[in-house]
Design goal:
The protein is an all-alpha fold. It has a domain of 100 residues. The chain is built from 9 helices and no strands. The longest helix has 35 residues.
Length: 186
């Protein structure tokens, strides 16, 4: 037995424990809360459970999409479709994907990170995020509340502003527009 074996066991235990520190700390806080104020802690646990149920499906969908992307999409494919010089088709795709995406935006952040690592441009990620304000399932409610002209103008301006925001983000982050240079006729 060498003199470093004890420290290597401690190191392995520490590296195993590190991802569990935050959940264990939260569990300890809830435990103390149950001792000090059981009714308030019970209410807090109930609210946390409701929040978990709200984000569980979108988070699982984003994780499944990430697994599928990592399994079936190569960096070259993502770069050709959502990277620099990818053209008008990729702008339409990132806009449509943003419109159709559901759930809380933070559930999508790991997917965006993965896409950026594979070569997606800042423009397309920003366009996706900005287009999330348009929701087809809510359009009938918008029309019923405000009428056709307001609703159509609101949606068109939201999409136009999403492109403007994406251009500004792309220029600020990389110094050039992320869609320029491709064949915009595709």
């Amino acid at each position: 037995m060498n003199k470093y074996s004890g420290s290597s066991i401690l190191f392995r235990f520490g590296s195993f424990l590190k991802p569990w520190l935050f959940p264990l700390a939260i569990a300890a806080l809830y435990g103390f809360g149950l001792l000090l104020a059981p009714a308030a802690t019970d209410r807090a646990l109930h609210i946390s459970g409701l929040m978990f149920h709200q984000i569980a499906l979108p988070l699982c969908l984003a994780l499944i999409i990430m697994v599928l992307f990592n399994r079936f999409l190569s960096s070259a494919t993502v770069t050709s479709f959502l990277g620099r010089k990818s053209g008008l088709k990729s702008i339409c795709f990132s806009s449509l994907a943003g419109i159709l995406s559901m759930g809380p935006i933070y559930a999508w952040y790991p997917l965006f990170k993965s896409l950026k690592e594979k070569g997606a441009s800042d423009f397309h990620v920003a366009n996706f995020i900005a287009c999330r304000s348009v929701k087809p399932v809510l359009f009938p409610v918008l029309v019923a509340s405000f009428g056709w002209s307001f609703s159509a103008l609101f949606v068109l301006l939201s999409l136009l502003c999403a492109l403007i925001v994406a251009c500004i983000v792309s220029l600020a982050c990389s110094g050039s527009l992320g869609f320029v240079g491709g064949d915009v006729s595709d």
